[in-house]
Each structure stands twice: as structure tokens, then as C-alpha cells.
Amino acid sequence: MKSAIALLAASVIASTAFAATGATEKLPSGVVVQHITQGTGPQPTADDVVRVNYRGTLANGTEFDSSDKHGGPATFPLGRVIPCWTQGVQKIKVGGKAKLTCPAATAYGEKGVGAIPPNSDLTFEIELLGIGK
């Protein structure tokens, strides 16, 4: 009987962990956060400085930016980036990875910027490495 209970407990723990990874959350702004790897650390607030690895792509899959292009992880105040990032990265725990799908209105909107045309929906894969103040 003990082994059956242990097996059941292990099954529940494993299914809970599986549910957390791959979970998708749609925010009121339309930003979609798909958790790829669940982190175990704290979640940042908009007032925090975050350290991340990231890769940004247009809707057609074309990469327009990445932390690798800049020599490694990026560090910046979370409240001073596009709304999609400010909202979405707050949903990731340190050590986690997520895919953010950003409607144009939460990215660069009608103006676009650089290689990003106006009214572009964007996708970012983000790994949250750390939080500072």
C-alpha cells in the first residue's frame, strides 16, 4: 500500500510540474506568455532591473535582435522597455524561459523601429537569469 501511495504522490507532483511547463497565459493587453521552462526563483516587478538572454522575431520568423548579437545577456530596467516585456517578464521566475507573443500595440505600434516594420506583432524567447534593483 505504501508503494501505491508513493507512486500516486509522484504522479501528482510530476503532472503538476508538467502543467507548469508549457502553460500559456493571456494577459488583458493581449500579450501571450508561454512558459517553456519553469523557473524556481522570484518574479521581477516593473521596478526591477533584469538580466536576460533573449531572441526577437517577426511574425514571419525573421530574427531582428538577440542578446547573442550584443555579446551575451542584457541588463535593463524592466519598466523602461516595451509594454509587452514589462508585462510578460513579470510572469517569469528567475531560471525560467518563456515565449512572449506581443501584439503590435504592446510592442512598437504604428511607428515601428529599425528592422521592425510598423504594426508588427513580435515574438520573444526570454530566459530570466537574474533580478536586481
From TrEMBL:
Its EC number is 5.2.1.8. It is an enzyme of class 5 (isomerase). The keyword Cell inner membrane does not apply. PROSITE patterns: FKBP_PPIASE. It catalyses: [protein]-peptidylproline (omega=180) = [protein]-peptidylproline (omega=0). Residues 47-132 form the PPIase FKBP-type domain. Keywords: Isomerase, Rotamase, Signal. Pfam families: FKBP_C (PF00254). GO terms for molecular function: peptidyl-prolyl cis-trans isomerase activity. Residues 1-19 form the signal peptide. PPIases accelerate the folding of proteins. Belongs to the FKBP-type PPIase family. This is Peptidyl-prolyl cis-trans isomerase. It comes from Caballeronia humi.
